[in-house]
Amino acid sequence: MTINLRRRPAVWLAAAVIALALLASVVAWQREHMPQRSVSFLSGDPIAGGMLFQSKRCSHCHAINGSGGKLAPDLGSGRNTSRANLGQLVTTMWNHAPEMWKRMQQENLRASPMSQSEVSDLFAFLYLARYMDEAGDATKGHRLFETKGCIRCHAIRGEGGVVGPDLANISGVDTPIQWTQTLWNHAPAMEKQFPQTGMPWPRFDKSEMSDMLAYVREVSTSPRSEFRLLPADPVRGWQLFKTKSCIVCHAVQGEGGHIGPDLGVGREAPITMVEFAGAMWNHSPQMFREMNSRGIQRPTFNGQEMADLMAFFSSLRYFEPNGSTEAGRGVFAARGCSRCHGANAEGTSLGPGLRGQRVNSVSLATALWRHGPEMYRRTQSLGIAWPKLNENDLGDLFAFLNSPAEEGRR
Ligand code: HEC
Ligand code: HEC
Ligand code: HEC
Ligand code: HEC
C-alpha cells in the first residue's frame, strides 16, 4: 500500500477534529441526565424466578411445558398461541385475576404480594420457558431457509451448501437474544460471500425471523444453555452501547448520533426480541458501510453482552408497547379505570392517583399482585365488573399514565 505523505497530516487533522467533536458530544450527552430507566424482566434472575414459581405456589396450579399443576393453563411453550409476548402475559393475567383468586380461595392459597424485582425474576423465568416470545413456525422457517438463499451456503445435516457451517451443529440458537448475537457476529463474513451468489442481501419481515429461528432450533443438535444468559445487566448494557459505538450513530430518547434511527421508546409498534434480530440482520450491510466510511471497527459481542444490551433497551421500554396519551385517556375511561382512579388518573376517594409513576408491563403485573385483591373487593362492593384490558390497550395506557400530570388536565 502506498501512502501519500503529503496528505496524511490533513487526514490526521480531520480524524482528530472528528474525534474531538465526538468526545465533546458524548461528554455533553453524558452530562445531561442519564436515560430514565424502568425495571425490565431481562434484568430478572430466571433461577430465582423458577424458585418463586414454586414458592408463590404458581406451580400448584400451572405447569410449565407439562410439568406442574393441572388446575390452570400451562404457561410453557407448548401452548398453541401464535403470539404470546410480555404484553399478552400481563393482560391475560390481569383479565383472569378474579378467577385465579377465586381458585386460590378454593385451594386455601393467598395471592401473596410480590416486589417489582420478584416479578422481574418471575418474568425472566417465564420468558426463558418460552412463554413470551412469538412461537415461530418451523415449517415456514424451512421454506425460508431455501427462499432466502441460506441453503446455497449452509447445509442442514449434510444437505445444502458448504460455504458456511452446517446449521444443525451450531450453538447460539437458544433464544432470540443469542440468535441476534450469532447473526450479528457472523454477518460480515457472510456479507463478503454474498456477491458471489448474485443475490441481494435477504430481508426478513416481522414474523419471518421468528419462523427461521424456530426451524434452526428444531434441527439444532447442540446442547441448550438458556439459563446461562440471564440475569442481564442494563447498566452494563448502557456501557456497551457506548463502547461498541452504537451511540455514535443511534440516539436513545433523542440524544446521541442521528446517522441511524433513534432506538429509544417512541416507536409505533412494539418490537419483539426476535424482530430485533431481524432488524439487526436487515440493516447489517448498510450499518457496516456507515461504520467503514467513518473508520469505526465493527464490534462483535461475546457471552452475555447482547443480553446486557437488550436489557438496556428493555429498561428504556424499547420492547414495551407504546401509544398515544390521548388514546390512553380514552382507554382508561372506556375500561372503567377512571371510575375509581379519576378521568386524569389523578385519584379519587375510591382509588389512588396513578400518574407520574413509571408504568410498564412489570410494574403493572406487580400492582396486580399487590393491589389487585383490594381493587377486586372494591369493584364488588360497587357492583361493577372487573375492568378487563385488551392487549392493544397497554401501549396507550402506558403512554397516558407515564405522561406528566399537567398534560392530563388542559
Ligand atoms: C390456585 C390456583 C392458581 C395459582 C396458585 C396461580 N394461578 Fe394463575 N391462573 C389460575 C387459573 C384458574 C387461571 C385461568 C383463569 C381463567 O381461565 O379465567 C389462571 C390464569 C393465569 C394466567 C393467564 C394464562 C392464560 O394464558 O390464560 C397467568 C399468566 C397466570 N395465571 C400466572 C400465574 C402466576 C405467575 C402465578 C404465581 C404467582 C399464578 N398464576 C398462580 C390459577 C392459579
Ligand atoms: C453466501 C454464503 C452465505 C449465505 C447465503 C448465508 N450464509 Fe450464513 N454463513 C456463511 C459463512 C461463510 C459463515 C461463517 C462466518 C464466520 O466464520 O464468521 C456463516 C455463518 C452463519 C451463522 C453462524 C454459524 C456459527 O458458527 O455460529 C449463522 C447462524 C448463519 N450463517 C445463518 C445464515 C442464515 C439464516 C442465512 C440465510 C438468511 C445465511 N446464513 C446465509 C455464509 C453464508
Ligand atoms: C456508523 C453508524 C452506525 C453504528 C456505529 C451503528 N449503527 Fe445501527 N444503524 C445505522 C444505520 C444507518 C441504520 C439504518 C440502516 C438501514 O436503513 O438499512 C441502522 C439501523 C439499526 C437498527 C434497525 C433499526 C430499526 O428501527 O429498524 C438497529 C436495531 C441497530 N441499527 C442497532 C445498532 C446497534 C445495537 C449498534 C451497536 C452495536 C449499532 N446499530 C451501531 C448506523 C449505525
Ligand atoms: C373499583 C375501583 C377500581 C377500579 C375500577 C380500578 N381500580 Fe385500580 N385500584 C383501586 C384501588 C382501591 C387501589 C389500591 C388498592 C390497595 O391499596 O391495595 C388500586 C390500585 C391500582 C394500582 C396500583 C397503584 C400503586 O400505588 O401501585 C394500579 C396500577 C391500578 N390500580 C390500575 C388500574 C387500572 C389500569 C384499572 C382499569 C383497568 C383500574 N385500576 C381499575 C381501585 C380500582
Structure commentary:
Helix content is 51%, strand content 3%. The radius of gyration is 24 Å and the shape is globular. The N and C termini lie far apart (67 Å). A hairpin with a 2-residue loop joins strand 3 and strand 4. The strands form 3 sheets. It has a two-stranded antiparallel ribbon. Helix 7 runs parallel beside helix 11, helix 8 packs across helix 11 and helix 9 crosses helix 12. With 410 residues, the protein is mostly helical. The site of one heme C has 21 residues, from helix 7.
Instruction: State mean pLDDT (0 to 100 scale).
Output: 82
Major β-sheet annotation: 2 strands, antiparallel
**Count of discrete alpha- or pi-helical segments spanning 4 or more residues:** 17
Secondary-structure element series: HHHEEHHHEEHHHHEEHHHHHHH
Quickly give the structural class. Answer: mainly alpha
How far is the N terminus from the C terminus?
Answer: 67 Å
Instruction: Provide the number of structural domains.
Output: 3
Write out the distinct hetero groups bound to the structure. heme C
* Strand order of the biggest β-sheet: 1-2
CA-based shape: globular
Number of strands: 6
Our Rg estimate from Cα atoms comes to 24 Å
Helix content: 40-55%
Proportion of residues in β-strands: under 5%
Low-confidence stretches: 1-6, 26-35
